Amino acid sequence: MNKEYELNDMVQMKKPHPCGENRWKIIRMGMDIRIKCDGCGHSVLIPRKKFESKLKKILVKAAQED
Q: Within its chain, how far is the Cα of 46 from the centroid?
């Protein structure tokens, strides 16, 4: 499953964060992806493969700056 996600996109994961929020912002991309909870601000670093399997959908695309 190849989903087009970029830095600063708001995404929804399959499981919500323990704080109750299910919106995450991608704040770092590389071999691992760091996502930040939109509710409490907690950030999590997860391997790209695991991120792709747990990603449900992209909620808001990052604004394109041209």
A: 10
